Amino acid sequence: MKISSFVHFARFGIKTILFKKREPILGTIIVTDKCNLKCKHCSVNNITAVMHPYKQIRNEMRQLYDMGVRILFFYGGETFLWEDGERTLRDLVVEAKKMGFLIVNTVTNGTFPIDLPEADLILLSLDGDRERHNIIRGDTYDTIMENVKQATSDNICFYMAINQINKDAVCDVCRTARDVQNVRAVSFNFHTPYPDTRELALSKEEKAKCCEDIVKMMKEGVPVFNLKSAFPYIIQNRFPTPCHQCVIMENGKISTCGRCIEIPGLCDECGYFFVAEYTLLFRGNIKIIFEMLKTYLKYI
């Protein structure tokens, strides 16, 4: 991370903590909900299958930038499917950098060639060992791993949503992240139980066991892009929601924190580690502050 970026984020954090501000720093743009997969845990794919046009996405980027957002994510659907004429996801990332966003990341299912060195991080969904990943996402594991090995940069971070199917594969994904080239780290979430996927949710006891596995992997030197100090809050869902420092934009509509905010009661069962980490950070949790500094400086 550049010194100038670090200084900007430090100033934002200090002002937010001291004056209890609610301005956003992290924004997400849904470029399309079209996806080539039908994953068992996903409730938001192919609802419209619309590719939002470049001009609209650029205007949304400008709107988020003017709001103070400096960490930008591009989400799908599948982001590498997005196109508008000759423009592709790379054009969006390059434009975001030119506009002044300090960190630009994207999320992908990894089934397309990974040629995006301009992104700070590419969060790639890997949901277990070969068997359990393929149960969730179809026969894609070998394709994904080959694309990872052939990637043109080492900016990949595995991104695992832990649920009832893959809860015993946390260590497998950790070791894969450690051992496979081009992978910088691994990041975890727990399954957030949308009404049509409630059967995949974990109990508090199961969440605690998964966190024990993650801590064990951390001690073995696995690069984990999560904050250990937040685990007790995540297990018990004792962190404040929603996260006002995060916003998401889809087809011109801005929502605080995430798309799930409009589903009654779902915030109380939030499984997103980053929501816990950011809300605790901006409440002034000292352990979280120092651990986030160490983690972000190491992996971004």
What would a concise description of this structure say?
With 300 residues, this protein is an alpha/beta fold. Helix content is 38%, strand content 16%. It has helices at residues 3-19, 54-67, 89-99, 130-137, 141-149, 170-179, 204-219, 231-236, 273-281, 286-299; strands spanning 26-30, 71-75, 83-84, 87-88, 103-108, 121-125, 156-162, 183-190, 246-250, 253-256.
Features:
300 residues, alpha/beta, TIM Barrel, eight-stranded mixed β-sheet, two-stranded antiparallel sheet, 10 strands, 16% strand, globular
Describe the overall structure.
With 300 residues, this protein is of the alpha/beta class. It has a single domain (3-299), classed as TIM Barrel (Alpha-Beta Barrel). The chain is built from 10 helices and 10 strands. The protein has helices at residues 3-19, 54-67, 89-99, 130-137, 141-149, 170-179, 204-219, 231-236, 273-281, 286-299, and strands at 26-30, 71-75, 83-84, 87-88, 103-108, 121-125, 156-162, 183-190, 246-250, 253-256. The strands form 2 sheets. Strands 8-7-6-5-2-1-9-10 form an 8-stranded mixed sheet, with helices on both faces. Strands 3-4 form a two-stranded antiparallel ribbon. Helix 2 packs parallel to helix 3. The longest helix is centred in the N-terminal third of the chain and has 17 residues, at 3-19. It is globular, with a radius of gyration of 18 Å. The model has no long low-confidence stretch (mean pLDDT 96).
